[in-house]
Design goal:
The chain is α+β, with helices and mostly antiparallel strands. The protein is built from 6 helices and 8 strands; from the N terminus they run ββαααβββαβαββα. The protein has a single domain, classed as Gcn5-related N-acetyltransferase (GNAT) (Aminopeptidase, 3-Layer(aba) Sandwich). An 8-stranded mixed β-sheet has the order 1-2-3-4-5-6-8-7, sandwiched between helices.
Length: 184
């Protein structure tokens, strides 16, 4: 599976992509906004293999894609949409991006493509995402997508040995359709 945006190719992860994933997941700037402690290379390799395994699920309920710059073919992050079961009506949206590419609209572009995929292809009723309250960049991405703040999840995620609050943003099918009609 792959999706194409104006500047990005969202494609299935490949085994050798772990090098690019490791490059941003080991960056101290990235680590400030992720629940995981610094990872070892072997852990990143296992994660990428797990993502690759999801590609073979039948029926498939998890789509984790590499975010690739069309101009250079360089992997700059990953993004995904995950359903609890293949026939779920709701899914979680997520994205991660190398800090060198923050602030250029790539996360918004990739996430918008995944929202379209979720509502048009997977026929979802609701898509949600979570982020840390201090992650203003991610909050801006979610708001640019038209997602709305729904709740603060208190002591929701264990992050670097400390329980942290998360913010939840969501969009339902009706809001997505209205937004699509307005933009089109």
């Amino acid at each position: 599976m792959h999706l194409t945006t104006e500047r990005l190719l969202l494609r299935e992860l490949l085994a050798h992509d772990w090098h690019a994933v490791w490059a941003y997941q080991s960056d101290p700037r990235f680590l400030r906004s992720t629940p995981e402690l610094p990872l070892r290379q072997e852990q990143v390799q296992r994660w990428v293999q797990e993502y690759i395994g999801w590609q073979h699920e039948q029926p498939r309920c998890t789509f984790q894609l590499a975010m690739v710059l069309q101009t250079t073919q360089h992997v700059i992050g990953s993004c995904g949409i995950r359903m609890a079961t293949a026939h779920a009506q709701a899914a979680e949206l997520g994205y991660e991006l190398h800090p060198d590419y923050w602030g250029h609209g790539y996360a918004t572009e990739a996430a918008r493509s995944l929202l379209t995929f979720g509502f048009e292809t997977l026929h979802l009723q609701r898509v949600w995402a979570e982020c840390l309250p201090e992650n203003t960049g991610s909050i801006q991405v979610l708001e640019r997508l038209g997602m709305r703040y729904t709740q603060r999840l208190h002591q929701h995620t264990l992050m670097q040995n400390c329980w942290r609050d998360m913010l939840e943003y969501a969009m339902d099918r009706a809001a997505w359709q209205k937004q699509t009609e307005t933009e089109g």
